Amino acid sequence: MTDTPAKPVLLTGASGALGRVLVRSLGALGWPLVLTDIAPFPDPIPPGAAFTRADLSDGVTMLRLAEGCGAIVHLGGVSVERPFEEVIGPNIRGLYHIYEAARRERARVVFASSNHAVGFHERCESLPADTQFLPDGYYGLSKAYGELIGRMYWFKHGVESVNLRIGSAIGEPVNARMLASWLSYPDFSRLVERCVLTPKVGHAVIWGASNNARMTWWRDDARAALGWTPIDSADPFAGQLAGAVSGDPVEERYMGGAYCSIEYSRTQPASIWGHSDV
Ligand code: 15L
Question: Is 79 touching ligand 1 by the criterion CB < 6 Å?
């Protein structure tokens, strides 16, 4: 028997791939859901849920949608690397609207951060959750901002947040990198359940990857406090995917993979601690 949250949960980005996964899984558990996205919702809406089409840049609507909610699961916004001007509205202003709504409702934020907030760390490293941000583009930068706005609202206003640094949440891993970074949909759903239901979380960070033997990149996060243990694993795909590499040295060197190569213009890689460069 799984618990149900006492108050409704606002889910942004409901029409995206991960949003639809959560609507199915949390809807099946009978959770009261307030769904929103800029795109129409393509699936049947579960009983106990309601969908409103809205833009994250519309702060008044975000405040209204969050009314009475106990948690905001924030998946909305640009979800891939895009030019700065496309990212700033949904991902920067949008985050401000979400945190203002959370402050007003005393609601918790579960934020879909990303490995791209730390994408320029090298794959040979093993990072604790309090590692330095090394975003690999404007999208990753917006995710680092999202984690930092959460930290500010925690220290200033006591708004709780769980920041999920999601690796590669996709149906099945498709390349060698994902043998480390893959997060299965069921592991993701169980993680979000724990993020909402755990009585106290403060300001927490979780590395979002399944139980992959090659997941040596990330360690020491808040999963024990949340009671989340990933169950699935990319390991059965190792035979078919170990050789699925791009041949691009920048992509293969860094955790962020292909995002690191987009418009990369250095001739030599930076050292891990860039400030010691000449
Ligand atoms: C992400 O943050 C993206 O939303 C997703 O499309 C993938 O690119 C993923 O990261 C990844 O790094 O595999």
Answer: yes
